[in-house]
Write a sequence for this structure.
C-alpha cells in the first residue's frame, strides 16, 4: 500500500507537466513557470481574518501526520518533498480542468483499490482480485465490451450478490443457533448473546451516558472489520443510545471494568444491508471492554 501511495503522490507532482502537454504549451516555458510558482510569496497578516486563516492552517498541520499514518501507512517525513510539491501544484492552479481530472483519476484508483475493494470482498467473497476490479472499471469507462456489455455484467453481478447474501445469512443464523447452546453463553430475550470474560464491579451505564470502551469486531468467519487498535488510540468514546441495538443492550448490562464477548444477530446489528466492510445479514462478534462512564 505504501508503494502505491508514494507512486500516486509522484503522479500528482507530474500533473503540471501533463497539463502543459495537454494544453500544447512549450515545455521550457512551462518549467520556468512552475519553478517560479514554487517560490512562496511573503504573507501579509493585515486583518484579524488574515490571522485566523493562517493559524487555522497551522492547526490543521498537527493532524496531518496522524492522518497519513492511519489512511496510508506513511509518515510526513518520508514523503515530505513529494507531498509538498503535489500540494503546491494543486494550490497554485485550482482552476485548471486537466489538473483536477488527472488528480481525480489518481484518487479514484487509490480509493477503489484500498477502500471499495475491501467492501466488495465482504459482499462477493475473498477471491476478488483488485487488478481485475480496476481493469473492469477502466474498460467500462472506455466502452470496451470485449468480455461483457453492461447489461450482462449487471445480470451476473445481481446473481452473485444474491447467492452470496444467502450464504452469509445462513452462516450467520447457523452460528447464532450453535453458539446459543454453549453453556457459558447467555442469550437475552432480544436474541443478544454474551459471554463474560471478566466481570467488573463498577457502575452500569444508562442509555444516555457516554462510555469509554476498547473493542474488536469480527465476522463469523473471523475477519476483523474494526477495532480500537485500528484507530491508533487506547480507547474509544461513544454515547450508549447512538450505537447498534446489540451494543446498547450489552452496555446497559455491563458494570465498568467488565470485558465480555458479545454475539449480535444481524437484526440487532446492521440489518440486511451492507455497511462498509460488513455484508448484509451478518452476525457480529465483539470483544468489548467497558473502561469508564463519562457523565
Amino acid at each position: 500500500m505504501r508503494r502505491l501511495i508514494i507512486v500516486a503522490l509522484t503522479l500528482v507532482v507530474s500533473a503540471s507537466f501533463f497539463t502543459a502537454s495537454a494544453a500544447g504549451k512549450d515545455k521550457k516555458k512551462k518549467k520556468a513557470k512552475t519553478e517560479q510558482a514554487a517560490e512562496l510569496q511573503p504573507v501579509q497578516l493585515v486583518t484579524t481574518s488574515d490571522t485566523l486563516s493562517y493559524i487555522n492552517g497551522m492547526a490543521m498541520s498537527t493532524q496531518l501526520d496522524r492522518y497519513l499514518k492511519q489512511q496510508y501507512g506513511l509518515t510526513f517525513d518520508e514523503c515530505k518533498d513529494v507531498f509538498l510539491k503535489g500540494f503546491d501544484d494543486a494550490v497554485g492552479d485550482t482552476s485548471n480542468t486537466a489538473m483536477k481530472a488527472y488528480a481525480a483519476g489518481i484518487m479514484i484508483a487509490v480509493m477503489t483499490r484500498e477502500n471499495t475493494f475491501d467492501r466488495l470482498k465482504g459482499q462477493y467473497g475473498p477471491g476478488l482480485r483488485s487488478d481485475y476490479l480496476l481493469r473492469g472499471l477502466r474498460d467500462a469507462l472506455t466502452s470496451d465490451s470485449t468480455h461483457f456489455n453492461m447489461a450482462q455484467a449487471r445480470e451476473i453481478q445481481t446473481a452473485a450478490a444474491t447467492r452470496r447474501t444467502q450464504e452469509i445469512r445462513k452462516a450467520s443464523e447457523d452460528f447464532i443457533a450453535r453458539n446459543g447452546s454453549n453453556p457459558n453463553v447467555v442469550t437475552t430475550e432480544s436474541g443478544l448473546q454474551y459471554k463474560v470474560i471478566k466481570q467488573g464491579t463498577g457502575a452500569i451505564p444508562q442509555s444516555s451516558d457516554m462510555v469509554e470502551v476498547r473493542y474488536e469486531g469480527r465476522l463469523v468467519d473471523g475477519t476483523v472489520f474494526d477495532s480500537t487498535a485500528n484507530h491508533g488510540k487506547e480507547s474509544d468514546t461513544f454515547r450508549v443510545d447512538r450505537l447498534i441495538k446489540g451494543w446498547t443492550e450489552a452496555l446497559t448490562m455491563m458494570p465498568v471494568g467488565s470485558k465480555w464477548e458479545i454475539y449480535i444477530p444481524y437484526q440487532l446489528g446492521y440489518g440486511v444491508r451492507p455497511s462498509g466492510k460488513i455484508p448484509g445479514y451478518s452476525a457480529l462478534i465483539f470483544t468489548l471492554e467497558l473502561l469508564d462512564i463519562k457523565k
In short: Confidence is low (pLDDT under 50) at residues 1-37. The first helix runs from residue 2 to 13. Residues 44 and 50 are 8 Å apart (CA to CA).
